[in-house]
Design a protein that fits this description.
This protein has 428 residues and is of the alpha+beta class. It folds into two domains: 302 residues, Glycosyltransferase (Alpha/alpha barrel); 91 residues, Immunoglobulins (Immunoglobulin-like, Sandwich). The chain has 13 helices and twelve strands. A hairpin with an 8-residue loop joins strand 7 and strand 8. The N and C termini lie far apart (116 Å).
């Protein structure tokens, strides 16, 4: 009799489960516990992280508040720089998303991707024809990478089509399907690509200068609502999976939408967060499918998706808005003019004591009066420079000269130090 009652109880439980769709293995765990346990799992199991090995996990750790001084993060940076030097800055001849991903990780670590082992990774995204070789995937991740640190796109000689932000945005918008979503191929929206497209466009949403972006994002959000399953999850290529959920979570948080509270993205009481937790593996990590085993890609994506959610709750920058990693530049020291002479007609030579360790270059300001009215400036772009000859001056005129150093931020902005003491010279 007890066995019959037990069987009846099991049948009833299964019946409830089939109705609610929520009684999967990980459904009872909190998002915070799942995130913390997964972080511990990653830090214990990730070995020798470098480009193409654990870089998304490293990015997630950095965006979740792990210090760049952490041994694992330091190891990634050291290994990545070594790899770039060994491969002479080449990551892949076609997959330019490799450069975008590496830019993101470097930025998350507070490192300068324009000087990654001596190579400027941003230059790789300047060739629009190469960026779009991967279809929509390339422009999406190029835009995310460039916007992560508000980077200026370098101008590269020999490039037939120079990348601009508007080009990247337009390419993504042109790829939007009739149903409002996005796909790598075909005419049916895929939640992964739709989520990624929204992540790229999020910065421009509700910006009056980009009305087409706002329209496209609203259509894509409607499409997500349509694609969402009754358990709060998503399916890609006919398979319910955790990674699709992750990309939607990152997209919604980038748009400052709470995926656990917004009624548009809740089904039968199940949010996207609830759906993701169904894939959690006790002890840390996530599965690709509910019936599967712990999976590396699923784990890394779930971890940074939950990190994105936590950042939203904490009122912090979105996952890929990494402008918060930029350290304020310290002003370069005031240089000293060591010599100011006119040895040739209509010229003068300025010499100063440089400090190449804290400076990027120098600016020389000169005028025919001590108040520097109508002054002119000459920029020296070498930190190692210590002299400059200025020509085409007026013969017999006395010129007043001062010098200041500058440093360059990651986005190319200059921070100037104080001017040196003024010196004067009569030009021959």
């Amino acid at each position: 009799m007890k066995k019959k009652l037990l069987s009846l109880f099991v049948i009833l439980c299964l019946a409830v489960t089939s109705v609610t769709g929520t009684a999967f293995a990980g459904s009872s765990v909190s998002y915070k516990k799942a995130m913390d346990k997964t972080q511990s799992y990653i830090t214990e199991n990730l070995k020798e992280p470098t480009i193409d090995n654990g870089d998304w996990m490293v990015m997630g750790l950095a965006r979740n508040g792990v210090s760049p001084g952490n041994a694992l993060l330091k190891a990634y940076y050291s290994n990545a720089v070594k790899k770039l030097k060994t491969q002479k800055g080449e990551l892949h001849p076609v997959k330019y998303t490799d450069y975008s991903r590496t830019i993101l990780v470097f930025t998350a670590l507070g490192k300068d991707p324009s000087n990654a082992g001596g190579y400027n990774l941003l230059k790789r995204l300047a060739d629009f024809n190469k960026v779009k070789k991967q279809g929509i995937n390339g422009p999406i991740w190029a835009l995310i990478a460039l916007d992560s640190g508000n980077y200026k796109i370098p101008t590269v000689k020999g490039v037939l089509v120079q990348t601009t932000r508007d080009m990247l945005i337009d390419y993504i918008l042109d790829a939007q399907l009739e149903d409002g979503g996005f796909a790598l191929s075909g005419e049916k929206a895929d939640p992964d690509m739709t989520g990624m497209a929204l992540q790229a466009l999020a910065k421009y949403y509700k910006d009056k200068n980009y009305p087409k972006v706002t329209e496209a994002v609203d259509k894509a959000l409607d499409c997500i609502t349509y694609m969402q399953k009754t358990d709060g999850g998503f399916a890609s290529w006919g398979t319910d999976n955790s990674e699709s959920i992750c990309q939607i979570i990152v997209a919604l948080t980038a748009l400052r939408i709470n995926p656990e509270k917004d009624e548009r993205f809740i089904r039968n009481g199940n949010s996207t967060i609830d759906a993701l937790l169904d894939y959690y593996v006790p002890g840390g990590g996530f599965k690709h499918t509910v019936s599967g085993k712990r999976n590396g890609m699923a784990t890394e994506q779930a971890y940074y998706a939950l990190t994105a959610y936590q950042r939203l709750l904490d009122g912090k920058n979105a996952l890929y808005d990494m402008t918060d990693t930029k350290k304020p530049l310290a002003k370069p020291a005031k240089p000293t003019i060591t010599s100011l002479k006119s040895t040739k007609t209509k010229t003068m030579t300025v010499k100063w004591k440089n400090n190449s360790k804290v400076s990027k270059g120098y600016q020389i300001c000169y005028a025919a009066n001590g108040k520097f009215t109508g002054s002119k400036a000459v920029t020296v772009t070498s930190a190692k420079a210590s002299a400059k000859t200025i020509k085409s001056l007026k013969k017999g005129k006395t010129y007043y000269v001062k010098v200041r150093a500058y440093r360059t931020d990651r986005d190319g902005s200059r921070l100037y130090g104080n001017y040196s003491a003024v010196k004067k010279v009569k030009v021959k």
